[in-house]
Design a protein that fits this description.
Length: 199
């Protein structure tokens, strides 16, 4: 789980645009993988197989949310603060530079969240996780040509919104710290123990 947590969380997060829901989807995905590990035949890499399970779990949650929202309409809220991406950045990592970097990371995360639904997972897997076109296509179950075109369009949209600042901050987007990783591992192991009666 620790080896695959970050990429799977980021994939679910790109689809759901919500940290808590992405964590839940990831945990449910691991449980589904645990229950169906016997069906894993090794035709794809384990990471790809897990990725498909988590993508399906996230998409299922997205469909449920859409049905729920259709029944009980939610009031629109403002979700993205208008940050100033043109502030000068210092080369040294003092408190000011760290604060600016954090602001830039939040801006990038907000702009990724604002991408059209079809582009977000492709962008997350290709740009942030640096997976190949083929790996991304296999995880998302779309043709490689579609991955290429969606990735190109997503980059264009982001470049329009972020200009030069985007290229310097990819690696920090949607940080996956030790606490979240530990929480997911612990949650999955607790649920497996309860399911198997080994508490």
């Amino acid at each position: 789980m620790r080896r695959h947590n970050r990429v799977l969380f980021r994939t679910a997060r790109a689809i759901l645009r919500d940290d808590a829901e992405a964590e839940d989807a990831l945990q449910d995905g691991y449980l589904k993988a645990y229950r169906t590990i016997g069906s894993f035949r090794g035709e794809a890499r384990l990471s790809t197989w897990l990725g498909r399970i988590v993508v399906n779990e996230a998409l299922m949650r997205l469909r449920k949310r859409a049905r729920r929202d259709a029944i009980v309409p939610l009031h629109p809220t403002t979700t993205v603060e208008d940050l100033n991406p043109t502030a000068e950045t210092s080369m040294e990592e003092g408190p000011e530079a760290l604060a600016q970097r954090a602001q830039m990371r939040k801006l990038i995360e907000a702009r990724i969240d604002a991408l059209p639904e079809a582009y977000r997972p492709v962008f997350m897997l290709r740009a942030v996780e640096e997976l190949s076109v083929e790996e991304t296509a296999e995880i998302l179950q779309i043709p490689p040509a579609t991955v290429r075109s969606r990735f190109f369009r997503a980059r264009s949209l982001l470049r329009e919104a972020l200009a030069r600042e985007m290229d310097t901050a990819y690696e920090d987007a949607f940080g996956f710290d030790g606490e979240r990783c530990d929480r997911i591992v612990s949650g999955v192991l607790d649920r497996v123990a309860r399911a198997t009666g080994k508490s």
